[in-house]
Specification:
It is a single chain. The chain has two helices and ten strands, in the order H-E-E-E-E-E-E-E-E-E-E-H. The chain is mostly beta strands. The longest helix is centred in the first third of the chain and has 19 residues.
Length: about 190
């Protein structure tokens, strides 16, 4: 009897925690090579719109030539043939974290790669990293992550002339009214 009562009270919390911790990955594998910005992908009910200042065609989907970025990737230059672009990604829901794989078009020294997060155009934070040259591959590759205040847009940029991204893994933010503290109990 006590166990049944515990299950009835605990099950909603477990389901809430599972929903709060759900991650979604945008891989570009469902996009045909040649798909160029601006476009929107939807995975598990979450939409991401990819665009740049050189659209139409600032970035393009193409088959990977990298080690850690597999399948299709999104990179520049696209059909607009414009270099030194930032990639803007707007999401249909608030997020609490993002992690992605990247490669930059460097041959000697890896360039700085930056993800800046925004909530309704107000900057909430950023993170920068550089990739590493992997044996047998020409371009530095890396992984970068941002976690912090909720955000619904990221701007991805690099000091390199061009870059590619893949495996954009995002975590949706808890529903309004749930504190981060109450949800963090679910991670234990």
């Amino acid at each position: 009897m006590l166990f049944n009562k515990w299950v009835k009270l605990s099950l909603p919390m477990v389901l809430l925690c599972a929903a709060a911790n759900a991650s979604t990955v945008f891989t570009f594998d469902g996009d045909g090579p040649g798909t160029s910005t601006t476009f929107t992908d939807t995975v598990n009910g979450l939409s991401a719109t990819f665009s740049s200042s050189a659209d139409p065609g600032g970035f393009v989907v193409y088959p990977s030539m990298f080690e850690t970025l597999t399948g299709n990737v999104l990179g520049d230059p696209g059909p607009a043939f414009t270099d030194n672009l930032a990639l803007d990604v707007s999401f249909s829901q608030n997020l609490s974290a993002i992690e992605l794989d990247f490669a930059t078009s460097d041959f000697i020294t890896p360039s700085l790669f930056t993800v800046s997060a925004y909530e309704n155009s107000a900057r909430v934070g950023s993170v920068s990293s550089t990739g590493e040259f992997l044996a047998g591959f020409n371009f530095p590759e890396g992984q970068i992550a941002f976690e912090g205040d909720t955000f619904n847009q990221v701007v991805i940029s690099s000091a390199a002339t061009d870059f590619a991204v893949d495996n954009i893994n995002v975590v949706t933010a808890p529903e309004p009214g749930l504190s981060r503290r109450s949800v963090s109990v679910c991670f234990c």
